[in-house]
Each structure stands twice: as C-alpha cells, then as structure tokens.
Amino acid sequence: RSSPRPSPSPMSKSRSFLQHLFCCDCYRVPRCASILVSYLLVICFFFCFSIILPNFAVFVEERGGSGFYYGLVLGIFAFGQMIGVVLSGHSSDKFGRKIVLAVTLSMIVISMLILAFITEIWHLVTLRAIQGFFASAFPVCQAFIMDAVKPAHRSFHLVLTTASLYCGLFLGPLVTGTIAAYGWMPPPLIASGFSFICLLLTLFFFQNASQSKIQPTPTSTHT
Q1: Separation of alpha carbons 161 and 157, rounded Å
Q2: Most buried residue among 47, 77, 111, 171 by CB atoms closer than 10 A?
Q3: pLDDT digits over 21-54, tens only?
Q4: How many CA atoms lie within 13 A of 55 on its CB side?
C-alpha cells in the first residue's frame, strides 16, 4: 500500500507560479530576479520621462518662455534618446548590460536631483537632453529579457515589456497631478529617489546575459 503524496508547500507553489510566469525550465532565483528588475527599469525610464511633463508649460511660462521653448524641451529629450540608444546598445555588447544600466541610472538620479533646483529654461533644456541620452537604455532591458527567456515565450515577454512602458507613462503624470499643489520640486525628487532604488536593485540583483541566459538542454546520443 503506497503512502499518500504530501501536499505541496507554499514555497513550492510560489516556485511553480514563478516558473509559469517567467517560462523557466527550472526555478532559478537570479534569472527571475533579473527579469523582474528589467521590467522595473522600463517602468522607471518612462516614469522619469513623463513625471515632469505636466509641469513643463507652467515652468516655461513663469520664466517668460514661448511655445518654442516648450516644444524644444519635449523634442530635445527624443534627440538625446536617438543618439544614446545607438551608444548604449554598442556599450552593452562590449562592457555588459549591468554596467550600462548602472551608469545610466546613476546619471538619471543625478540629473533629476539637479532638475528639482533649476531656475532657468536653458537649464531645463540641457538636463532633458542629458536625461534623454541616458534613458535610451530601455532597449538594453528588452534585449536582456529576450536573451533570458525561452524563444517560445519571447512574444509574451515583449508584451509585458510594452505594458511596463505604458505603466511608467501612466504613473508619472498621475503622481505629478496628485502633488501638483506642492510646486515644481517634488516630482523630480520623487523620480530621483525611484531611480536610486532601481539602481540599488540593479547592482545587487541584476545579472548579465551570460549568467542568466537559458542554456540548451544537451541531448544524449546512443552508440
């Protein structure tokens, strides 16, 4: 008479859920944590982009700027991204994705901190160009995720990456609207703090693709 099978523990249930969510062949905490951090970084990049948008017009008008400067502030961010995305992709292949992400997050932390205390329009234009350049590391996160998951599930993770992008675009203006009564300074400080948290998570939990990439299962041969 066989003994009854023990019921699965809460820990094993959690592992099964993570296996299904991240499409892992086996439960590996480092790889799953790296994927989670990658999604959080995508949210962070676009959160930092969008959290300042609602206050741009007020900032420019209070300093006597015209609609040209408002358009310049918005466009210069994309211009910085256009240049940075090429360099970040090349640098991530050469030096590793973790280093590139850590550097970009560090610069976003510093630039957002400075942004909270600026007083001139040209300060805003310069900082937005810098932020656009370093926020271009979004494709690095996307490339890491594509390397870390099984090919059969890459479309699913592309959808999750896009959802993370829109999540950041949604949360940024929402936060700014909630604290609009406190003026210009709080949104950049919040973005700087969020970026700093993401930087710490990247340093301690993110692994390069060589450490997290799914290895093919060896096939046995019969002689």
Answers
A1: 6
A2: 47
A3: 444 443 445 678 889 999 999 999 999 989 988 8
A4: 27
3-state secondary structure of 9: coil
- Amino acid, res. 65: G
Per DSSP, 150 falls in state -
Cα–chain center distance at 27: 23
Residue 132 pLDDT > 50: yes
> Is the pLDDT confidence value at 95 over 90?
no
Q: Residue 74 CA to chain centroid, in angstroms?
A: 20
Which amino acid is located at 4 in the chain?
Answer: P
Is residue 101 within 8 A of residue 74, CB to CB? The reply is: no
CA distance linking residue 206 with residue 56, whole number of Å: 34
